[in-house]
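User: Assemble these into one structure.

Assistant: Restating your components, then the assembled model:
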Amino acid sequence: MSGITLALSKGRIFEETLPLLKAAGIEVTEDPETSRKLILGTSRADVRVVLVRATDVPTYVQNGGADAGVAGLDVLLEHGGANLYQPLDLRIARCRMSVAVRDDFDYASAVRQGSRIRVATKYTSIARQHFSDKGVHVDLIKLYGSMELAPLTGLADAIVDLVSTGKTLKANKLVEVERIMDISSRLVVNQAALKLKREPLRALIEAFSSAIPE
Ligand code: PRT
Ligand code: MG
């Protein structure tokens, strides 16, 4: 495939990448929320967008299913990011990775006493690293969604999840007790494509770089 294929996920990443694409002279000609198409055309004949699950973006780009893509740091850290060139922090889709517990759970004293804490999360790599750095013993419980439910049902004492406004935690009577890291989305580029399609990819990186929000 000559031309450039970009992998994006629907929702906030797609929406927040649009202004960056625009700076590169690329307008997506279909709306992913109403179209059922998975491959979207753009105002540039040599550029197309493929819609994939957020967690699949690194896999597509790594294996050449797309030349470049946009993925959250959370997704990249869990994936491992091997063989991916990551030239830009786009500063979009920003949030933080945090530890949260039920408002009646005394996290500080559980940590102080060295008790084993049951932690439910979709982000097992990030969580394992975090608690191991702190020397806190945890039993990790892998979940694929609705982490907030785990402490409420007794499945876990704590969760590791993304927090943006904090409204989801609040609505479920959970409190943030530790901020693990700030998260934003990165541009990722396939290594081989970077050589074979050097000029158009350089231009894209350059244009994105000039349009990164404050
Ligand atoms: O939703 P889906 O299951 O299809 O896939 P996904 O969740 O992987 O994709 P998407 O589009 O929801 O998230 C894509 C990327 O956006 C993530 O990988 C993050 O890097 C980034 N991002 C930024 C967020 C948030 N903010 C965010 N708030 N991803 C998820 N959330 C969720 C969070 O998990 C929690 O459930 O929103 C909820 C908390 O939001 P607040 O505002 O109530 O705190
Ligand atoms: Mg989501």
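The radius of gyration is 19 Å.
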